[in-house]
Write a structure and sequence with these properties.
By secondary structure, the chain is mainly alpha-helical. It is built from 5 helices and 3 strands, in the order αβαβαβαα. β1, α2 and β2 form a beta-alpha-beta unit. The longest helix is centred in the N-terminal third of the chain and has 22 residues. The chain is elongated. The relative contact order is 0.13.
Length: 137
């Protein structure tokens, strides 16, 4: 009885050049990724930030939240090269300023700096001031 070799497939091994090696697959994937990222960068219209940034603080000026917002704003101004304007909008338990920030254009140029308690309590006041922070912010 002679031994027979069991041949599973006619494909050549990667060393014989029949299939793509792992390095070739990686190179092809990186080339495809590079092409797709190049089109995204070319399509972006402006560098952020291209204009001043407005930070809405829904507390009165001079309070702890306002002081920290101004310190952060000064740091951001020096690091990004654009003015960061602090705009205090107190009233109705932080709801007035928070609602203004929620209704602002979602372009990244209007930010909200608030305490956590203001965002937690915001959904509970009267209907005309109600802010659904989980959905709107």
């Amino acid at each position: 009885m002679g031994r027979r070799a069991l041949r599973v497939s006619n494909h050549k091994t990667p060393k014989q050049g029949g299939q793509m090696s792992g390095l070739r697959i990686l190179a092809a994937a990186l080339a495809a990724l590079d092409l797709s990222l190049g089109s995204v960068v070319a399509a972006s219209p402006e560098v952020y930030p291209a204009r001043p940034i407005k930070v809405i603080v829904p507390t009165p000026a001079g309070g702890p939240v306002d002081v920290i917002a101004r310190l952060v704003g000064n740091y951001l101004t020096s690091s990004i090269g654009q003015p960061v304007v602090i705009d205090n909008r107190p009233g109705a338990g932080n709801t007035i300023g928070s609602k203004e920030a929620a209704q602002a254009e979602p372009d990244g140029y209007t930010l909200l700096y608030s305490s956590a308690s203001g965002l937690v309590l915001a959904p509970h006041p009267a209907e005309e001031c109600r802010l659904r922070s989980a959905r709107q912010l």
